[in-house]
Design a protein that fits this description.
The chain has six helices and five strands; from the N terminus they run αβαβαβαββαα. By secondary structure, it is α+β, with helices and mostly antiparallel strands. A five-stranded antiparallel beta sheet has the order 2-3-1-4-5, sandwiched between helices. The longest helix has about 45 residues.
């Protein structure tokens, strides 16, 4: 069933909004993926804050051209049956969600991605991005690195303090026994 012009305009407006709010939009081929697997992928996406949409490439291209940021992007790679993963909170989450799912369902293949700055990333760049830790993990790693010297000092001091207290308790116990 063909879409009406109003419905197409509505979809272009929705995709345009998603693109402007998204920190990273990943495009992936999904041909041959069963419906149940697609439903599972959408559920996995919701857990990471990633919204997945299957939209006609022509309408996505119109939405890209409507933005000053994306209008110069090469869209020649947007061919075939593609799904688009949008995430407004994390740059890495859409790629990670699709990469994790592609391990179970190899019919999902990266085509590329659009960064919030208006840059097109190749499929290889998206695959490399998918291997990065999430934003929360990176923040936790930085905090752990920053607090590591402090933890080492506290551990050293508490170790010496425990040794001192053990020594005092031993001497006190020996004195009590001998007296």
């Amino acid at each position: 069933m063909a879409l009406t012009k109003d419905k197409k305009d509505e979809i272009v407006k929705e995709v345009s909004e998603l693109l402007s709010n998204s920190k990273m939009t990943v495009a992936a081929a999904y041909q041959g993926t069963p419906v149940k697997a697609m439903q599972e992928l959408r559920r996995n996406g919701r857990e990471s804050g990633t919204q997945l949409k299957v939209v006609k490439n022509r309408l996505v291209i119109k939405a890209l051209q409507a933005h000053d940021t994306f209008k110069d992007i090469d869209t020649s790679g947007l061919n075939g049956m593609l799904l688009y993963a949008f995430n407004s909170e994390d740059e890495v989450a859409p790629a990670q969600t699709l990469a994790t799912f592609a391990k179970k369902q190899p019919t999902i293949e990266f085509v590329g991605a659009f960064s919030a700055e208006g840059r097109f990333l190749t499929a290889d760049e998206v695959a490399a991005l998918a291997t990065l830790p999430s934003k929360d993990n990176l923040i936790a790693q930085v905090i752990a690195t920053l607090t590591s010297p402090l933890n080492d000092v506290v551990s050293g001091l508490s170790g010496n303090l425990h040794g001192l207290l053990d020594g005092i308790e031993y001497e006190e116990a020996r004195r009590l026994i001998l007296d």
